[in-house]
Amino acid sequence: MNKVPDKIIIPSFTLNDGNSIPSLGLGVYKTTDEKEMHTAVDAAYRCGCRLFDTASVYGNEELLGNAIRDLDIPREELFLTSKVWNNAQRLGDVSGAFRRTLDRLGTDYVDLYLIHWPVPGCIRQSWKELIRLKESGLARSIGVSNFAPAQLEALEKETGVIPALNQIECHPLWRQKETVDYCLSRGIQVQAYAPLARGAYNDREILRRIGSKYGKTAAQTGLRWLIQRGISAIPKSVHPSRIAENADIFDFSLTDAEMTAIDAMDEGLRTAHVPQDLADTDWAVLTD
Ligand SMILES: NC(=O)c1ccc[n+]([C@@H]2O[C@H](COP(=O)([O-])OP(=O)(O)OC[C@H]3O[C@@H](n4cnc5c(N)ncnc54)[C@H](OP(=O)(O)O)[C@@H]3O)[C@@H](O)[C@H]2O)c1
Questions:
Q1: Contacts 24+ apart (CB under 8 A), 124-129
Q2: What residue ranges define each of the domains in the chain, with the CATH number in brackets?
Q3: pLDDT the model gives residue 5
Q4: Can 58 be counted among the known catalytic residues?
Q5: What is the pLDDT, as a whole number, of residue 7?
Q6: Catalytic residue among 45, 58, 113, 182
Q7: pLDDT of 79 above 50
């Protein structure tokens, strides 16, 4: 890995509600060891990272909250995201789940609250509950995750409130052109989860070759491609050296030809699984 600058300035994107969001953050899915969480959060913060992405289903909101408190910095310097899980949506308990999330994180508000998955029969109702959370000020911005255009359209039609953000799996091996284009057309910020495809493109020759021109790794090149598409990314790592590597992507730019060459790597590779309870869902037509 190349040398990391002392201080990396991570640029922000502006959301459709006027709030801003860091273009890069730390994902903490599967970070369930207290020491690992502490080390990862501390390393990310030192690299300039202010956005931390968790979810109630990760079972680590409390660990993240503790690690953040140990940073001993003003809350407003941070950007915290969490998500409501499917069972709470089915039970009509989105606001209860949200309160429990705040308790576990040990914070008065989250910067971004997302519907984790579109659950058949719950989409519109859950979105209305998120709108109320935004109105209360306890969720500064609200959005969704894993939503296809059909579900996004349904939310807008029902409430007139367009999600600020859609968090979807997105990386060079699955660029999600249709959903990204739809989000761009409606002013919805896209945020990429599994932006490293969980390691699946580390050995791809094309990314290595393009990256080597700038002294960057395949992982850095893939992340940079996302940022240049206007997509926010939340790579996960528990290793400080990798966290630093993933953050060190703001001192170079890919050319148009390089962006196009990476676009062409798309093979529709899904690395995160669809939850069992949603396995039979037809996302192309689901609207309620
Ligand atoms: N909304 C959703 O449905 C959803 C679904 C999945 C994930 N997410 C969010 O998105 C975040 C990121 O996604 P993800 O964790 O699934 O996948 P990812 O960020 O694409 O990949 C993480 C994996 O790559 C390794 N890694 C990290 N940096 C690396 C580097 N520079 N070189 C080589 N390997 C590296 C990590 O290992 P080490 O930790 O050992 O370094 C880990 O095994 C999650 O943590 C979570 O916050 C959301």
A1: 124/154, 124/155, 124/158, 124/159, 124/288, 125/89, 125/92, 126/84, 126/89, 126/94, 127/155, 127/158, 127/159, 127/161, 127/163, 128/158, 128/159, 129/94, 129/95
A2: 12-198+231-236 (3.20.20.100)
A3: 52
A4: yes
A5: 73
A6: 58
A7: yes
